[in-house]
Amino acid sequence: MSQIKAVIVEDSRLARNELKEFIKGYSQIVIIGEAENVDDGFKLINENSPDLLFLDINMPEKDGFELLEMLDEVPITIFTTAFDEYAIKSFDYNALDYLLKPINEKRFAKAIEKVEEKLEDTKERSDENDQRLTGNSQIFIKDGEKCWLIKVGDISHFEIVGNYTRVFFQDEKPMLYKSLNQVEEKLPEKYFFRANRQQIINTNFIDTVVPWFNGKLKLTMMNGEEVEVSRRQSYLFKDKMSL
After folding, report:
1. Nearest-5° angle of CA 3, CA 5, CA 7?
2. The Response regulatory domain covers which part of the protein (predicted)?
3. Which of 64, 54, 5 is nearest to 31 (CA)?
4. Is this model's pTM higher than 0.85 or not?
5. CATH homologous superfamily for 4-121?
6. What would the CATH number be for the domain defined by 150-240?
7. What is the DSSP letter of 103?
8. DSSP 135
9. Distance from C-alpha of 136 to C-alpha of 63, rounded to nearest angstrom
10. Pairing verdict, β 157-161 and 199-202
11. Nearest to residue 176, comparing CAs of 144, 131, 206?
12. CA distances for 225 relative to 111, 156, 207, 220, angstroms
């Protein structure tokens, strides 16, 4: 197993020390930094691009969910919490795992096993010089009281709604508080295509393609959504898909 770069974001020094004691038993995990609040954690993660994040949920000023919302790409995340209600929620939010304080050694070992399995499964790696996400990159979306950690490759398409962007995956359609142009700059070109001024599609989720008026194409996505490709983009789409 290759080296796993880890960051701890936790406001309690005692809790940070406890985590570090557990991590000492795993030579493959290297702690590259720790922070006691969200803003310092955000800076640390952006500067070091860790593989693994140990994240306390309940912190003063900003909580762990707010940190995830600030990040363009979310590392593999293990939530740590003293509150069972948060633990249940974090599990629903698709965190890889959660650890209830005080942390149990066997429970910690299981969480690390999950991390290693996930890293083994993630064969796709982004070029260090490429600022775009990959299909396996995780992004955090919060819309009202609901939160998701979703793989970029599992998103079927994006759509402009005013100054923001609606994200389509599974049966969900939450809002992402970024413009479609901001989103497009980060998406892997291998999967995503700008169909028109309003929509970006994941080509893996196209069900049918039919000719439409004035040289345009009409796509039906696997979730039943219909997308009209502009005339200019239809030429590019045919070229991209070798039609």
Report:
1. 155
2. 5-116
3. 5
4. no
5. Response regulator (3.40.50.2300)
6. 2.40.50.1020
7. P
8. T
9. 25
10. antiparallel
11. 144
12. 38, 10, 10, 6
pLDDT digit string (tens) for 3-37?
Answer: 999 999 999 999 999 999 999 999 999 999 999 99
Q: Supply 218's token pair.
A: 């009409």
d(C-alpha 27, C-alpha 64), whole Å: 27
By C-alpha distance, which of 35, 109, 44 is closest to 78? 109
Kindly state the average pLDDT of the residues 108-128. 73
**Is-cis flag, bond preceding 50, omega within 30?**
no
Cβ-contact 107, 99 below 8 angstroms: yes
pLDDT in tens, 137-152: 888 888 887 888 889 9
> Is the distance from CB of 234 to CB of 214 less than 8 angstroms?
no
Degrees to nearest 5, angle at CA 48 with 56 and 164:
70
Copy the structure tokens of residue 197: 């001024």
- Which of the four pLDDT bands, split at 50, 70 and 90, describes residue 92? low
- H helices within the chain, ranges in order? 13-23, 38-48, 64-70, 84-92, 105-121, 180-186, 231-240
Mean pLDDT of 182-206: 93
Please tell me whether residue 17 adopts helix, strand or coil conformation: helix
Residue 136 main-chain phi, psi, to 5 deg = -90, -5
Domains of the chain, residue spans: 4-121, 150-240
Binned at pLDDT 50, 70 and 90, residue 130 comes out as low
